[in-house]
């Protein structure tokens, strides 16, 4: 039972990342009909927003500290972050420690801007082109963004730690009545799952309960009719592209303490996220979220030593096997609209 609960937690952790990335992908496909192979790069850019913010708030200047002396008795020169000058040392230390969560404030406008610029500058020219053309141009864009990050940040992973208060593990076993140490799980992975749940709920609430969201959903169902009513649906879809980019970016920001950012991390999630979208159903937002968590849990159970002893390497291909089974039995995906991907 302890092993099962632990694997469920692992699955929810992995599923959170899959669901967030797939949600943004589905928003883009559902509104614009574009297969965006640059979406993984948006996840990577979000992670490097956290890296950049962390570096910015630690930019320092040199001052002479009369309270510290070298071996000759001369005052030492020390580096003092500029943030100390603005907020004081105590508040500055807290902000540096909590750099990853605080970088969300930077990532949201930056990622929305990148998404809008991407849609207006490139994607809009491929709306009526075949999906193969869309895949080629967005995949090329992903490679360009990847190489830009590699040029400015280098090829090595950049450790970006979680706040000190969230370092360590939570003992689920004691809470559930098991022996201490039986079910131990990292705090930050629990935070990531809760964060993903909040973002997903916010996206669905925005689409369901706001006038803007209702118009977008109407445009997804019947774009021509909404346009005939005098509504500039293209402008709203551009904003949705920006919001989808922000969702992917936020997923990357909060993932940095779990996996140190590197220039190819977007590609690592790209294929998996498309598998999640296809399994859930192209254009289906609930399907993307359901498939993300479902495949995350399946992958976690396939990674158990008991399973790997019987089927070595099954954890590397289980998601693709599930996708094959789903597509053979239900081509439109678990919750896809009828007629989508069934031709």
Protein architecture, described:
With 343 residues, the protein is mainly α. It has a single domain (2-55, 98-329), classed as Orthogonal Bundle (ABC transporter involved in vitamin B12 uptake, BtuC). The chain contains 16 helices and four strands. It has helices at 2-32, 39-56, 82-87, 89-97, 99-102, 104-121, 131-153, 172-176, 187-209, 211-221, 223-228, 233-255, 265-280, 285-302, 305-310, 314-329, and strands at 60-69, 75-81, 169-171, 184-186. The strands form two sheets. A two-stranded antiparallel ribbon has the order 1-2. Strands 3-4 form a two-stranded antiparallel sheet. Strand 1 (60-69) and strand 2 form a beta hairpin. Helix 6 (104-121) packs across helix 12 (233-255). It is globular and about 80 Å long. It starts with a helix and ends in a 14-residue tail after the last helix.
Write the topology of this structure.
Layout: H1 2-32, H2 39-56, E1 60-69, E2 75-81, H3 82-87, H4 89-97, H5 99-102, H6 104-121, H7 131-153, E3 169-171, H8 172-176, E4 184-186, H9 187-209, H10 211-221, H11 223-228, H12 233-255, H13 265-280, H14 285-302, H15 305-310, H16 314-329
Antiparallel strand pairs: 1-2, 3-4
Helix pairs in contact: 1-9, 1-12, 1-13, 1-14, 2-6, 2-7, 2-12, 2-13, 6-12, 9-10, 9-12, 10-12, 13-14, 13-16, 14-16
């Amino acid at each position: 039972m302890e092993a099962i609960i632990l694997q469920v937690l692992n699955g929810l952790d992995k599923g959170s990342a899959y669901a967030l990335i797939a949600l943004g992908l589905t928003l883009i496909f559902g509104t614009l009909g574009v297969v965006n192979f640059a979406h993984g790069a948006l996840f990577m850019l979000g992670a490097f927003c956290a890296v950049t913010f962390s570096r910015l708030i630690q930019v320092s200047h040199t001052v002479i500290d009369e309270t510290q002396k070298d071996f000759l008795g001369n005052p030492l020169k020390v580096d003092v972050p500029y943030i100390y000058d603005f907020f004081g040392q105590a508040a500055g230390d807290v902000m540096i420690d909590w750099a990853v969560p605080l970088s969300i404030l930077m990532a949201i406008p930056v990622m929305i801007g990148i998404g809008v610029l991407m849609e207006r500058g490139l994607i809009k020219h491929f709306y009526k082109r075949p999906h193969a053309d869309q895949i080629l141009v967005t995949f090329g864009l992903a490679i360009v963004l990847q190489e830009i990050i590699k040029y400015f940040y280098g090829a090595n992973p950049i450790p970006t730690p979680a706040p000190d208060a969230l370092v360590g593990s939570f003992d689920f076993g004691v809470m559930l009545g098991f022996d201490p140490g039986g079910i131990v799980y990292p705090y930050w992975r629990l935070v990531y799952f809760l964060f993903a749940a909040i973002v997903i709920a916010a996206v669905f609430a925005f689409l369901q309960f706001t006038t803007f969201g209702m118009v977008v959903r109407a445009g997804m169902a019947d774009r021509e009719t909404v346009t005939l009513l005098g509504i500039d649906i293209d402008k709203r879809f551009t904003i949705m592209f920006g919001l989808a980019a922000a969702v992917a970016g936020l997923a990357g920001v909060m993932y940095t303490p779990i996996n140190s950012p590197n220039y190819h991390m977007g590609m690592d999630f790209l294929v998996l996220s498309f598998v999640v979208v296809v399994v859930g159903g192209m254009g289906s937002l609930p399907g993307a979220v359901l498939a993300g968590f479902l495949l995350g849990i399946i992958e976690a159970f396939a990674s158990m030593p008991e399973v790997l002893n019987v089927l070595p390497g099954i954890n590397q291909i289980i998601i693709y096997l599930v996708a094959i089974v789903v597509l053979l039995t239900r081509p439109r995906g678990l919750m896809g609209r009828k007629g989508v991907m069934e031709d």
